[in-house]
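Batch manifest line 244
LIGAND: nicotinamide-adenine-dinucleotide
JOB: complex structure
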Amino acid sequence: MRLSGKTALVTAAGQGIGRASVLAMAREGARVLATDVRAESLRTFDGVGNVITAPLDVLDRAQIEAVAGTLDRIDVLFNCAGYVHAGTVLDASDADFDFAVNLNVRSQFWTSRAVLPRMLEAGAGSIGNMASVAGSLRGLPNRFVYGLTKAAVIGLTKSVAADYVGRGIRCNCVCPGTVDTPSLADRINAFDDPVEARKAFIARQPMGRLAKAEEIAPLVVFLASDEAAFVTGQSYSIDGGMTI
Ligand code: NAD
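JOB STATUS: finished
ARTIFACT:
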């Protein structure tokens, strides 16, 4: 199994890509600490082998340090937490901007700081960060705040990778296209005509369909595994052809 002997910490694991990634990591033999701000969402892991859970709000630095400190070792960190603000530069308030930067970027700064000292001590570790096609690789309409935060994730990823490339630490990020997750369903249902809105999301995918969260998880597993031992500082598109 590709992650045997490794211990992983995953944020925003209660649903969507985070949840699928936890299950995929556990299937590959990792011991996974699945965390989410909504403690009740973690009950779906009850009885799943190799998975332990803890509530964690990644907007709270002290909580991050406390939860990370419960693990005797951390080989893999997957920063999945993120939030989509819909709107243009003229729609975004300072509060929208600050919230998205804090959740999508500052949380990764804090979690990275919480795990890196132990990874450096061990001389090994893999950090995976959640970016997106939006903003980082494609400018998409109505994704001003979201896009800028996901572009920042790529910069954060490359900086961490460059600083520790000689010390056994790898840091990469994934850039999905549109993935059919509960929050996407919420965004679609918020439109006046959800049927048309879903069609519009599908229309921006050249394959003519949305991704499943389970289609993103294998890339997360690969980047966490020793199969990716020569891979660092990279952003991987997994987008059904959006960036062809
Ligand atoms: P989702 O948005 O459906 O679920 C997000 C999870 O994050 C929820 O379980 C929620 O409780 C948790 N969460 C929210 N605030 C939190 C906080 N402060 N601390 C900890 N957890 C918190 O899941 P998703 O759509 O799979 O998105 C996961 C990540 O993937 C996000 O970073 C998102 O930007 C990124 N992404 C999603 C898509 C997509 O189309 N769904 C595409 C590209 C990138």
